[in-house]
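Provenance and format

Records in this collection were gathered into a single text stream. Each protein contributes a sequence line and a token line. The two records reproduced below are adjacent in the stream.
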Amino acid sequence: MNHSIVFTRHPGLSDYRGMHARQLALRDAVSRGESPDTVLLLEHTPVITLGRKADLSHVVSAPKQLADMGIDTVPVDRGGDVTYHGPGQLVAYPILDLKHWNPSVGWYLRALEQVVIDLVGEYGLVGERLEGFTGVWVGGAKVAAIGVGVHQWVTLHGLALNVNPDMRHWACIIPCGIADKPVISLAELLGSAPPMPEVMDRFEGHFRRVFV
């Protein structure tokens, strides 16, 4: 059975705290049946987020250095460790009632991974899963990070696909606590960055095909 999903694209750069408040309001509305399942698509201002089990030693840059670089630091109520968001990265926040599909966190994570695997496949890239890890990898390097929260089967947070971000910012952290695996972008893999609106279009198309 098909379920209606609304995709909302936010122009410019979105502040993390403001967008998190928007997610919470949407989650409550979806839980009450007052809002349709919604996917927010956006780019963030530079921010390091700390998941519930984050190891603070995985933030390797000093607070002053982060401030000088314009990078904010925010604790968040999602799974996972330390991650980075910033301009040039497609961030997707699906606010979905999983009872419309499959009330399973494992299924949901694999479905999000499949959306990205299908998307990068359109660019001739082979996206892969690595056993024991969450996210999507190309040639052993992580191109998309995933960290979700689920409350009464309504989802929060989501995924981040590196299209053409400032890769130097990842030197400030040990991404997701994984020190021995690099992070990569579509721009690096392809030699040039695909336009963000095009990537958003393809993401929406593949999301709709996976979540049917």
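Adjacent record:
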Amino acid sequence: MPRRSVLPLVMLLLATALPALAQDKGGITGRVTDKRTGHAIPFATVTLLGARRGGLTDSEGQFQISGLTPGSYDVRIQFLGYKTVDHTGVIVSAGKPAVLDIRLEDVVVHEEKMVEVSAERRLVEVRQGATIRGTNAAEIRNLSVATVNDVLQRQAGISSDADQIHVRGGRSDETVFVVNGVANRDLVTGQSTAGQLNARSVSEVNVATGAYDVRYGNAL
């Protein structure tokens, strides 16, 4: 009879000891956000230095590390593209988690200074023998054009037929397109596809209709 009464007593003592043991532990909770925008930072690494404990923030930037022995802890928060933040001396008490509000500052790897170069072009170049008319990118943006051919057709003396450019009534194979100093021309047909380039992708379009120098040979 006495042996039967001992077993329930032992089980009762163990059942009451487990909640008491859980109350002796503490934890650290908090939220990690961007310092500039205030947006949550998910998957940031939270590490307890020297304790080999840690975790990751969730989609809301929140984290929780539980089951810690009461004491002082050093917490490190890291995320790619942000400065590392260390919180030293975080006090963990039994039965009550320590709450941290972490704001990470983004890292600017290298910031280039903007240099703007501007110049004025004369309306008429007296030392230039060629007849050249130009259209820059700013002017092209204000035109209802899609291709370089559309830009050229707005120049005097230029017409288009079957997507081919004719200058002053000449044939399409008598016209040379030069893109960044390189002639764009089919050696067999003499025609070019450069006129189909997107007008928004060029910085300037220049048209020379006569008296140009010898580097623009084989063109009338």
